[in-house]
Amino acid sequence: RFSYTALIKVVARSRRSGIIEAILEEMKGAKCHMDSVTFTVAMRAFAEAGEIKKAMKMLGEMKEQGCKPDQVTYTVLIKMFANAKLSKEVLELYEEMLQNQNPPDTMTYNTLIHAFTKLGQHDVALRFSKKMRESGRYPNAYTYGILILLHANMHRLDLCLHTYKEMKKSGFKASEVIITTLIRAIKEAGDLEAAHKLFNDIQQAGLGRNEFVYSILIEMWAKSGDAISAKNCFDQMVEKGIKA
RNA sequence: ACUUCCGGGCGAC
What we know:
Layout: H1 2-12, H2 17-29, H3 36-48, H4 52-64, H5 71-83, H6 87-99, H7 106-118, H8 122-134, H9 141-153, H10 157-169, H11 176-189, H12 192-204, H13 211-224, H14 227-239
Helix pairs in contact: 1-2, 1-3, 3-4, 3-5, 5-6, 5-7, 7-8, 7-9, 9-10, 9-11, 10-11, 11-12, 11-13, 13-14
This protein binds one RNA strand of 13 nucleotides through residues 1-9, 35-44, 70-79, 105-114, 117, 140-149, 152, 175-184, 210, 212-213.
């Protein structure tokens, strides 16, 4: 069963749901018991192939066999509907989780917040963020990245920076993802002070494998007429071995 | 909840 599950996951990369179905048939033939992990991997495979119907059919089969979907299962399906921009069914799955005594965990909340961020339904995203806090789920590094993205999309650099501060206070280090998310908001707001702080953080954290971030910083300083900072940043970039 | 690991889920560009 473990090998079948692993196999499905590998095959899932090929986006050929026909193969997945064949494997599932074979498992059935071999009287191999399918557990929630097997079902979930299969659903994810269908989800990635854009086969929403098939994924939902699997959910049905799963329940029929008395196998209970768990948080991972729901998270996979929520992401699938979110990618298809089907916010109504996202919310339905969320409700179902609550009904089933399957309270969303950190990753489920991350997926929900991200889903509505991408859909441009910022108010809903914020509501889930609040619910997450209220439910006592701890944010992880992804959560902070998603929240910063949400605030950036809301054109609220102040909230981005606030979340960033909170993240560091909670013991998370700045990452490449966080930096590239933040830099967009900083650029948009033209906040030179924030740019300087971020540049410091990049150096302190030993980050900066990303030419995109440098180009924005240099451009900001160049535009503001701060040739010294622009040059300094450029030199740092070259020192890191990044091509100009 | 036999929550160490051994098969599954989340973020920017």
